[in-house]
Structure formats: structure tokens, C-alpha cells
Design brief:
single chain, 199 residues, 2 domains, nine-stranded mixed beta sheet, 26 strands, 32% strand, globular
Length: 199
Amino acid sequence: MGVRIQPSSQVDESAELGEGTTIWDLAQIREDARLGRGCIVGRGAYVGPGVRIGNHVKLQNYALVYEPAVLGDGVFIGPAAVLTNDFYPRAVDPEGRLKRDGDWEAAGVVVAEGASLGARSVCVAGVRIGRWALVGAGAVVTRDVPDFALVAGVPARRTGWVGKAGVRLVERAQEPGVWECPSTGDLYEEKGGTLAERS
């Protein structure tokens, strides 16, 4: 299966698109961006120069992924979500001159395997979203999110844990610190504020 690119989108000739990837209307993929296999880039979404995107990633309509973001396999970026890249955003320097590329250092967001960002969520420059974490709609993420964490609010705070199915985990009454997925039955163990799959 080949790459599908809608005529109204803009894909730089230096961008690399994996087999089976689809770029929908009005999306823009900038120079040297690299997308893996089976990705979907929704209407009006933006992928900045040099962004690295894994396999089977979904960018919903109008998602904005600024460089140098890195998205792992199976990541979901909800509609109008924004991954920023500037710690100190200013249009001009202290002397009033328009800032250019060399006048600031971009700090990308890293979204690990399987994680999901809800609609209109914002991740500030330099944060890391852990594996299979879930960021609630409208949340503003200002610090790193642990693996399997469910975070929500402004600023985002952990409100629970989720498993690979994205369903909120339930702590087992008979085993404190052991969490179960109501959907799959998978078990997870919490130790020191982190969660890991039970081996």
C-alpha cells in the first residue's frame, strides 16, 4: 500500500513518509520531517521541520507538532492539540528586533509509545509524555508525565492510571498498589509513584 497525499496538502519534497501513510486536506509536512508506516495526518495538521514520528501515529485535525518533537509508535494526538517548542516565546529580542531561527533554541516535546493527547491539550516545550499515558482534553502539560498516568487540568496533574486500552485502572482491594484494567484484566504495579506492567 502506497502513500496517500491529498492535493490540497503541502508535503516538502525532503520529508519521508512511510508506506501506508495518509496526509489529508490542508495538512503541512515541513522539510526533513520523518513519518513512519501507517500514519494518518488529519485536515489542517502541521508537522514541523525535522519532527520524528513513529509507525501508526494519528494526528487529528488541526494538531500542531512543532520541531524538534519526537513521537513514538502508536501515539494519538487529538484535534487541535499543540506541542510547543519555545521556553521563552518572544517575537522580538530586548532591542525590538524580530527574532529569527538562530535567535532561540527549540526544545521539542517527546511523546512515548502508545500515549494519547486529548483534544485541545497543550504540551509546553521540553516535556516528556510517558508510555501509554493519557492527557485529558484541554489539559496544559507543564511537567513530565509518567508512564500510564492519566493527567488532566490546568496545569495538568495526575488523576489516576490507565492501561494500554486507555481505560482508567482500578486498584485491587485485596492487593494495595496493584491496579487492574477493567477492559483487559491486565495487571499493573505501583511503586514509588510510578506504574509498570506486572510481569
